[in-house]
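Progress report, Aim 2. The chain analyzed during this reporting quarter is listed below.
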Amino acid sequence: LRGSLPLHSCSVTIGHKALALMGPQGAGKSTAAAAFARLGYSVISEDVTALSESGGRYMVQPGYPRVNLWPESAEALFGDAHELPLVTPTWGKHFLALDRTNRFQSVPLPLGAIFLLRERNATAKTPRIEPMPAAPAIFDLVVNTYGNYLLDSEMRWREFLLLGRLLQEIPGLQPAKMYEG
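Predicted structure tokens for the chain:
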């Protein structure tokens, strides 16, 4: 909230750009980020993607070099949740240390795309990606800003301006809905 725009998302690097995976709690953001890391891509942030505006570009700032995973996700990706250490003994989440795997992007990168993860479809065999027009996308972005319950009216106004510019100024940025099905 100190001059950055925090999105409730994980971000991974593809080439020289960051790809934000945004969505509600339980949508699979961290699991997807860990899967990207397992495939050899770098993760730049987990849970919060802090965007800063610089020279007309939105830059993704590096977060902490780890991805937290529920045991089911750790098992699906690594075969055994116990292969990964616990975040704390009193909580069931495990973590993938990205700095130990050289899969952490420690330098800011320009934002290239945002994917909004939607509810899973249990009968789907493959993921589906659809472009989303900017008008409805603004609402999904507002809902998925981090700490939005802390904003007063002036801060909310600034957030709307930043989100509007985000949707207009980034060349080729087309938020997309991602469904399984």
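The longest helix spans residues 153-169. The chain is about 25% helix and 30% strand. These observations will guide the mutagenesis work planned for the next reporting period.
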